[in-house]
Amino acid sequence: MDLDAFRWLLTDPGQALLAAAVDEVGTGGRDELAAQARLRRGATAEHVAAALTQATLRVRARDKLGDLADRMYFTPDGLEQATRLRVAEHRAGRLVAASTRTVVDLGCGIGGDLVAAARAGLVAAGVDLDPVRVAVAEANLAALGLPGAVAVADATTVDTTPFDVAFADPARRTARGRVFDVDGWTPPWAFVEALLTRDSCVKVAPGIPHDLVPAGVEAEWVSDHGDVKEAALWSGRLATTARRATVIGDGGLATLTDEDDPGAPVRDLGGFLYEPDGAVIRAGLVTAVAAGVGGGLLDEHIAYVTSDQAFRTPFARAYAVLEELPYREKALRAALRERGVGRLTIKKRGVDVVPEQLRKRLDLHGEQEATIVLTRVAGHGTALLVRPI
User: Fold this and answer.
1) With contact defined as beta carbons under 8 Å apart, do 39 and 21 qualify?
2) Which of 116, 165, 218, 253 could be cross-linked to 234 through a Cys-Cys bond (beta carbons 3.0 to 4.6 Å apart)?
3) What CA–CA distances, in Å, run from 18 to 7, 11, 68, 73, 96?
4) What one-character DSSP code corresponds to residue 266?
5) Is it true that the peptide bond before 13 is cis, omega within 30 degrees of 0?
């Protein structure tokens, strides 16, 4: 996005054009060329493009940012990298609970985390190398009536000592795609390690290896409605445990730590099966879930928990085990057809099965709906007919 075009969009004429573009996008099924033609009356092509881009990105941003999206501004890559609002609010809440007053965001992007921090009552400042993102972050704070300061600067040169906490979200994507090597992040891993020697929080990829986390630093994996969104490293006084899984759902927020994990044995299949949340699996806390439901693991290498008791837990999806079905495909097809199954949900772990392909090969046409779990029990492939509870 052109910086001058974005700044013009913040003027009174720009706001009027943006409002018209929002109306055009909101109608749905619009003819893009016709919409551009209508908006071009009294506006340049560049300004129209900027307005339509913002209007389109606001619609896309609602899933991440809720109602705030309709008042905010974005760049396409900035929106993609922005933290989901519920996750950012959780992080800001942890900072407030730790008596944090001031925070600096090193690489603030479009300001999603700045917004959450400011809404939580923190004094927040941000820096970013990209002047367009800095302008967008400033505009977002202003649009939401929030205090805060943003400046163009290299995060690696900023003196963070005046702030209680330093926050960083290293860029893990380039024009060629995702960067999996931590030394290829911007700023790189060496900067992250140095930052973690003080009170700080660093957002990292959920797939970060456990052995990469420095000693004394807490690693927290966060999921939102079952979808793992990020991992965060907490250091200094902010680190309260070694590993944590935090799950956000309709019922609020729940957290599980390694201190809740006494371990659990591998045991025989019971009457109930539990599928741990992805954040629990990433945090290596599956046995904590097993202990919590009075059960154990089906296999020491597979993230399924079994128990003789039914529990509702925010950390796992629960199923009643109805019966064991044949594992071999031909016999499984016959068993499902015998039960009149036509709509089939396939869950699997630890077996070489592609659910979409298997579902097509099974070729079921019955009236009943069913869920099966394909996994290993005592080292053997097993098919379980289950019912969500």
Assistant:
1) yes
2) 218
3) 12, 10, 16, 11, 36
4) B
5) no
What CATH number belongs to 79-255?
Answer: 3.40.50.150
Please tell me the pTM assigned to this model: 0.91
Terminal-to-terminal C-alpha distance of the chain: 48
| Mean pLDDT over each residue of the chain, to the nearest integer | 94
What is the rounded CA–CA span in Å between residue 189 and residue 211? 14
At 271-316, the pLDDT tens digits run 999 999 999 999 999 999 999 999 999 999 999 999 999 999 999 9
| For range 243-264, the mean pLDDT | 96
The predicted pLDDT at position 27 comes to 65
The C-alpha angle with vertex 126 and arms to 194 and 119, in degrees rounded to 5, equals: 115
Strand 123-128 versus strand 149-152 pairing type: parallel
Q: What residues contact 354, with CB distance under 8 A and at least 6 apart?
A: none
What pLDDT sits at residue 150?
98
CB 110 within 8 A of CB 101: no
Half-sphere exposure of 225 (CA within 13 A, CB side): 6
Helix (H, G, I), strand (E, B) or coil at 381: strand
Give the strand pairing for 272-276 and 316-325. Answer: antiparallel
